[in-house]
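Hi team, as promised in this morning's meeting, here are the two structures we talked about. I've kept the exact order from the run log so nobody has to guess. The first one is mostly here for context; it's the second one we should focus on when we meet again. Sequence first, then the predicted structure tokens.
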Amino acid sequence: TLPVRHTVSNDSIFLSILLEEFDRDAFEIALLPHVALTCKRALACTCYALRERLTPHLRAATLSVLRDDAVWSNALFVARLPGLSDLRVEGETSLPSMDLARYRRL
């Protein structure tokens, strides 16, 4: 079989099915690290139940993203998050953690 491509619709179906089965801690630990930032943003805009669970994650002081999340639309989104001070990119070796508060002062 072909590998499942991560798209908003695939991830939203997956998350919708599992949303009722996972408590808040399991949702954050088991699912969120594997969902693309673009998908998290879309799900927060389209599903009230997921918005409640995703908002604290997206508004946290530290945000961890996947390597594939390095696109301009996500960069613009991340730049506008007022409380974000630390951005971590999975697999990044040169700059694994970015102190955004410091960069904003430059």
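And here is the second protein, the one for discussion:
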Amino acid sequence: VIITPDGYVLTNAHVVGEATKMSALLTDGRSIEARLIGKDVATDLALLQLGAGGLPYATLGDSDKLLVGQLVIAIGNPLGFQSTVSAGGGLAA
């Protein structure tokens, strides 16, 4: 998920793996090279930066404001499917 207009991307560390060359395919069809800023295997998070600016981006919410049972949404591309969205309630405390 692109989280800043200057191209920072939050993704999973297991997706990045040990890759030395990365790119992101945007919904408009552009493929943009990316570089790894850092990753944390323990939390399965990685931060990349795309080689482009002025990008559309998602604003992250404040997890301190979540309530048990509130709707949560996951966005991704599992198993080659593009732009999938999963939603559900029951956020664990």
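Starting points for discussion:
The first helix runs from residue 13 to 16.
The two ends are 25 Å apart (CA to CA).
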